[in-house]
Amino acid sequence: MNLLAFAPWQYLLNGLGWCLAQIYSVVPNYAAAIVILTILIRLVLLPFGFKQIKSMQHMQALQPELKQLQKKYKNNKQKLQEEQMKLYREAGVNPLGGCLPLLLTLPFLFAMYAVIRPPLLAPVPVDGTPTSYQVVNDHLPQDSTLFFNVLTHQDLNLAGINLQCSLSTSGTQAVLKDTKGQPLPAGKPILGTNGQPVPNAVTQPTLDCGTKKFPDAIPYVLLLILMLLSAVFMQRQMSKANPQSAQTGPQAALMKYMPLIYVVWGWAFPAGLILYWTTANGIQIAQQTVMLRAGHIGPDALERAKAEQRRRAEEGGPKKKGFMTWMNEKAQAAQGKQEEVKEQRPGQDGRKDGKGGPRKPQAQQKGQQKKPQQKKPGSGQQQKKPQQAPGAGKPVDPTPEDASPNGETGKPAKGAQPGNKLRPKRKPSSAPEGAEEDR
Known about the structure:
By secondary structure, the chain is α+β, with helices and mostly antiparallel strands. About 50% of the residues lie in helices and about 10% in strands. The chain contains 16 helices and ten strands.
């Protein structure tokens, strides 16, 4: 997706351009208009700014405890995540609390760059030769005084600094180019974004940023130094607010040397954007000072936050769930459902035959392969001890084997119990002669 063509992004650019033009119409000074607009933006983002500062300071103060947890549970990621979330809850800290407000301020920084930089001009050829140039990226109202001044590069200075120039182009006549990378000619008509000619506006081949690097670059260097000093002071102020144990480590070193990156940006960006950045740093320093004096941040602020969380837990009051806590609970619930489905899934975890039956012991499975033993005759009824016939050496059953209880032969009695079927007729080979007559 092209960010420049994103509709909400265009609304933000056009809105900032309109606000800057309105301020300039009241205060006809480009630098003062940028400073006032910066203050208004920071006032709108003030609640998010306080939250960002507090979350960043508390997260920095928690680093020693987080490192101990990482060492303790380095081989158990799930337990490490649970203990980390528990630590965040005890301190009342949202790990994303310092990132989300920062993401809200970055679009305004990029938008100010798009509004402050010199407008780009696209050639409008006639018979293959550019006869005029059209504005393609300016977000200022075309009927405003600021639009005309920015387009013609006039009345944009502050103490010897052209706010459209950068430190890299200071002390030179910077060459202006069109959207195709070709140098702009002099004296060609300029068309607005609506295609209509802008009265008394013609192209200029160069941007006046001075004649010599020294001394013309000195004001640009001073502005960059002021921005660096504000950034360094802002970082040191936050470092002193952290406990002594949290003032070491990779993250602390990164925050310490982070302002050096501003040197690269300050070298290439327009001076008007550096002015915006410096003003924003000053406002954040003021916010941090207020929060330090109020006790919202500082070496003991995290312990007070933990004590407040414990007090609320003891009182049984409603607990406010943060975004990360909510995400962790959702993840644990999803994991529990997966384990439950896994246990009930056929053919896995306690299922062998894939039919939903529990796995049977090995001994029982082997026992099932054996043929069942035949039931003894008269199963289910109490067997009678055989009586010995007179003169017989072996016991003889007093009832004929082919007789049923009701005197019929070969047929089961009505209402006979299951399993009381008659035994097949056979003649005992071991019975002595005359046993039939004796019975």
